[in-house]
């Protein structure tokens, strides 16, 4: 997903983002309502929607309802919160790790990306140890982006599966594994992420807890 590049090169975000209203209404002739669906009544065929700048919900009738809300997949958050998707649901914002930023707005999302970029720059300056948990599509892309843009980082990636890019053919996994190791990224497979287990970090070549950990799905 191209959004990962934005964290290491913030200017890339502008190439990925746009406002829905201008595209949907002016180009495609689709009415756009900016708000959050709080309830769907299938029997009455009514959606209860809270518009962005309102304290009350409105009822919108429908003949057919297509739910295409995407997903979030943060394993350690009940909301599935992760860096890679904005936190936009009202309930999730109140419990967010970055509740000081409203990512329902493009500017809020941009601010969050800039904040994370500054953290990465600081880690790079101190030559920090960074652990990426999960060597699937996102994990491999993320750790290689980090290596390219922040070469002073000491990077480690690990996965419970016996290889990286588990769903892909062996040739793809071998290629990425070779690339990562040639670029100084330590790779550990067939290991469960168990940070509270005594001696765990030593098993993946670290003297202790890393300076920063990213858990990717």
Automatic annotation (TrEMBL):
Question: What family does the Swiss-Prot or TrEMBL record give for this protein?
Answer: Belongs to the FAD-dependent oxidoreductase family.
Which UniProt key words apply to this protein?
FAD, Flavoprotein, Oxidoreductase
Q: Which residues form the FAD/NAD(P)-binding domain?
A: 21-191
Among the GO molecular function terms of this UniProt record, one is: flavin adenine dinucleotide binding
Gene3D superfamilies xrefs: 3.50.50.100
Entry's InterPro entries? FAD/NAD-bd_sf, FAD/NAD-binding_dom
Q: Flavoprotein as a keyword?
A: yes
Q: Note the SUPFAM superfamilies from the entry.
A: FAD/NAD(P)-binding domain
| Keyword Oxidoreductase on entry | yes
Q: Return the protein name.
A: FAD/NAD(P)-binding domain-containing protein
Q: Which PANTHER family match?
A: APOPTOSIS-INDUCING FACTOR 1, FERROPTOSIS SUPPRESSOR PROTEIN 1
The organism's place on the tree of life at top rank: Eukaryota
């Amino acid at each position: 997903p191209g959004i990962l590049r934005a964290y290491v090169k913030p200017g890339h975000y502008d190439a990925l983002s746009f406002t829905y209203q201008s595209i949907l209404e002016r180009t495609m002739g689709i009415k756009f309502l900016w708000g959050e669906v709080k309830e769907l009544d299938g029997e009455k065929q009514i959606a209860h929607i809270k518009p962005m700048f309102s304290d009350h919900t409105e009822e919108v009738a429908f003949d057919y309802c297509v739910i295409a809300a995407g997903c979030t997949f943060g394993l350690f958050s009940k909301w599935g919160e992760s860096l890679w998707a904005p936190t936009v649901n009202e309930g999730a914002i109140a419990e967010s790790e970055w509740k000081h930023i409203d990512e329902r707005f493009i500017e809020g999302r941009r601010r969050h990306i800039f904040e994370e970029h500054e953290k990465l720059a600081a880690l790079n300056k101190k030559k920090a140890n960074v652990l990426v948990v999960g060597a699937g599509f996102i994990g491999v892309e993320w750790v290689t982006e980090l290596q390219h843009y922040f070469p002073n980082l000491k990077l480690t990636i690990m996965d419970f599966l016996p290889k990286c890019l588990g769903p892909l053919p062996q040739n793809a996994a071998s290629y990425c594994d070779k690339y990562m190791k040639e670029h100084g990224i330590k790779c550990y497979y067939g290991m469960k992420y168990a940070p509270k287990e005594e001696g765990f970090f030593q098993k993946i070549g670290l003297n202790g807890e890393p300076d920063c950990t990213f858990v990717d799905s």
